[in-house]
Give the backbone structure.
Amino acid sequence: MKRKWTLFTYPTMDIKAAEAMLNCRAEQGWRLEKIWLGLLASFVPAEEPVCYCLDWYDPNREDELDYRTLLADAGWRRVGQLSYWNIYEAPAGTSPIQTDGELEYRRFRKKALRRMAIGWAIPLICLAVLVLLGVLVSMKPGVLGWSYFVTVFTDTNTGAVVATALPLLLAGVALWSGRLLLRLGQWKRAIAREEPFPVPGRGSALTARIFSLVGYLFLIPLVLAFLLDAMAKELNLGWIIGMAAGCLIVLGKDPLPEHERKRRYAKGTLACVAVLLALRLLPLAGVTGLVCVKPPLADERLLPERTELEVVETHATLLSARTERREFGPLKEGDALNGVMDSEAWRLPWTWLADWVTEQYRKELGTANQEEVPGYENVWLERYGISGGNYPEEATGDVWLIRRGNIVLWVRTDMGPLDEDWLDGILARLEEDGA
């Protein structure tokens, strides 16, 4: 059958543009067949002339039975449903569903605007918390660990994807909100003049559809990140089970007609949760190692000739990786007392982020230790004396900071000073590691 396709990523406030496009296709002899994934509209030749109306809709519940019966009696048949919209079709010439602008605007406020406000509150609160934490860290670096911010890129793929796209997401929210405010102003002026709501121009509507499409495309890396986190067992099992239980509760309630869409959402969510649970339970952790960044310096100890025990923890995502290591060994040759060496190695995706991490470590070294080690570039050392406890006399500790490319290595040890041979060996390993 002959078909025509149209991009249908209209933002919510462009309801009149979407309605005008559907009626334009109807005048050309086409009838809406289906909306595919909220992205594409397919049209087929109409056997009889038709027309379309879009009506506001609460995404959490269906319209009341009386209202649906009223529309059906007037000749309107629902042929599509999107967030905040119902798409109705009727024979050409049927009276519109709503001709009173004031009533249509009130219905918008009741069905859509309040629900949108609740949705905005969540990202705005999260953004406010992030800004507050960032201010506190910049004011008092020792109070809150700055590294918690960077671990967003290394610990979970979902966090890495969201954090990377956050500037674009915030820009998209700002543009979306600005367009909504513009429409609200236009609608209120049209109501005051007793005029129909204005229809956005074709160029403006097309631009809005393209920007909305970009938002849909963001779901692709986000879904991939979720799947990888499930395989790596980074997704909390309790969260997955809780989501499944919530869906089952919704499906187990009385099947009231007004909750039909909520049940559809629950079924879809339950299917997604089942996939995540299966991926988490299956032995697929090795798959993530094939696509995620290689953790730096994770292959062997940093002090192999002096340590007897090590504890290693690695984290890796599609963007970056981190290796945390603790090694234990004697304070000096033949000594039964153990010292400790702690290290953190970061492989970061961008030079500016590696610069920032390096700067945070340098602040911890103190102003007296800002000079680079003679003969070496991007290598810093703080050497300090240790007294008391079981430490031998004149015991010293080292704090090393080494930067090669986008790899940043921090080492702290109380097992005596580390010499240039050790440093040269570490630098050689970093070169082999792709720094």
